[in-house]
């Protein structure tokens, strides 16, 4: 296993992680081996109500526990997993791990909140996400309201008919759909409404602009107003400061996620978060 910080939690490998991965070929072999040896864990990052601090959901974020280097960020291997197709296996594994974890928390008597999982473009294009979700929800006897799916705008740019069919099939299960990293792609809000997306997660690039300029704030305000007018709710990603949270509250943003509220954490840390229920005191 990787290095621990003494509290039994893994730490990220400090130096440039690109050096771990000396060549693309080597990374592909290592990834395949990692899948076979099950060297992946899910971390969870809470998403909270912007006004009450109540934990609404937790995003599952995959990490590779590298035998020599400890925790490896998904930014280091998801792109390669995408180009090699290994993302199909990793994606299904994430789905299964998330469902198994929800089942464990439920069995332990915790008041669980929904878990959202990230679905990559290649995985989505296969048109099998809805079937896989159905399998794991059924296997672990989990209500579909406890699972949410995050998809980027670019993943929805494929053949309109197929995209609509897959999104419809996921929604028909009762699983909510989130647009991840909104603002980094080229989709319009009206397109996303036609696709019946439930939630817009605004990319952290826009959150980080909030305190810096009037424009940043005006831009975010426009997204919130339009999303609300179209019946979608808004989550700000990457909230790092009290100032940003304050501005987001003034703008009417529904939910927030970011280091200011909570960092992604191992599953073992989640029961106390769920028991605590709120990550900050009510401001309204
Ligand atoms: P994402 O889905 O947009 O997830 C948010 C990323 O931002 C996470 O990085 C999270 O740790 C980070 N983050 C959260 N709050 C803050 C903040 O306040 N400041 C900053 N600077 N960063 C923050 P992470 O865990 O490294 O994941 C990176 C990306 O990798 C994710 O972006 C997602 O696109 C992808 N990813 C993670 N897990 C999976 C997975 O299971 N499947 C797929 N297909 N992609 C995944
Ligand atoms: Mg996400
Ligand atoms: Mg995101
Ligand atoms: Mg993002």
From TrEMBL:
Domain EAL stretches: 24-278
Superkingdom to which the source organism belongs: Bacteria
Protein name: EAL domain-containing protein
């Amino acid at each position: 296993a990787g290095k621990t910080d003494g509290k039994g939690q893994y730490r990220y490998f400090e130096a440039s992680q690109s050096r771990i991965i000396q060549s693309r070929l080597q990374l592909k072999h290592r990834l395949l081996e990692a899948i076979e040896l099950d060297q992946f864990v899910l971390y969870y990052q809470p998403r909270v109500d912007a006004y009450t601090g109540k934990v609404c959901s937790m995003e599952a974020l995959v990490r590779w526990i590298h035998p020599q280097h400890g925790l490896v960020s998904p930014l280091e291997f998801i792109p390669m997993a995408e180009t090699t197709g290994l993302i199909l296996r990793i994606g299904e594994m994430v789905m299964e791990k998330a469902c198994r974890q929800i089942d464990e928390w439920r069995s332990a008597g915790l008041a669980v909140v929904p878990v959202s999982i990230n679905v990559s473009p290649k995985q989505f294009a296969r048109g099998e996400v809805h079937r896989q979700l159905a399998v794991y929800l059924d296997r672990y006897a989990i209500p579909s309201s406890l699972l949410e799916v995050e998809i980027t705008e670019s993943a929805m740019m494929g053949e309109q008919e197929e995209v609509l069919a897959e999104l419809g099939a996921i929604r028909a299960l009762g699983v909510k759909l989130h647009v991840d990293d909104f603002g980094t792609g080229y989709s319009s809000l009206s397109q996303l409404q036609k696709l019946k997306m439930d939630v817009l997660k605004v990319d952290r690039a826009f959150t980080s602009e909030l305190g810096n300029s009037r424009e940043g704030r005006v831009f975010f305000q426009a997204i919130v107003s339009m999303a609300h007018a179209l019946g979608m709710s808004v989550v700000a990603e990457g909230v790092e400061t009290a100032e940003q949270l304050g501005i987001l509250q003034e703008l009417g943003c529904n939910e927030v996620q970011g280091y200011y509220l909570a960092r992604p954490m191992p599953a073992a840390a989640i029961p106390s978060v769920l028991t605590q229920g709120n990550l900050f005191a009510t401001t309204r």
